[in-house]
Amino acid sequence: MKPAAKSVPIVVGAVGAVTVLIDQLTKWWALSTLTPNAEPIEILGRFLGLRLVLNPGAALSLGASSTWIMTSLAVAITVAVIAYSRRVTSRRWAWALGFILGGAVGNLIDRFFRAPGFGQGHVVDFIDYQVFVGNVADIALVGAAVYVVWLNLTGVPPHAQTPRQSVSSAPLPASSTSQADPRPGRPSDEDVR
Prior knowledge:
single chain; alpha+beta; 4-stranded antiparallel beta sheet; 5 helices
């Protein structure tokens, strides 16, 4: 394994850990400063504000009555990212996977340890975009998804690729007495002998 490839799990873990730390610190701040379901505090007019919402579902409160499904999905994403990151050799992909891991774990902590109970906890959302209310973990997840699309569109592979020669670019064996005629169907000097 190349040195860059060895560092990929470290990058994924470090980016994920920092994302979780920032997410949980900002949620702690929101819980200690903001009042649940109060009028939003405007930051950029009506477009961006602060409003504390304890969300049982996903974005736009989708799946509010299916908290266990959201929890199971977050666990599956976490396990998949950890498993996949062991095969990735690209540091760019490591950053993307780290943000996905951090976002999933940040919201998973809420699902496991916040009221009303284990696996059914409500996620602390406080960044009000007018269309929905989110948090730092959501920003990490959406940003990472956009970055993954960009990596794919620009052709950045998650794994180191070994160069392969195509059949047409492989060197032809040289004849000991003469070169083969490049025209198809024409016998070479060796065929005539």
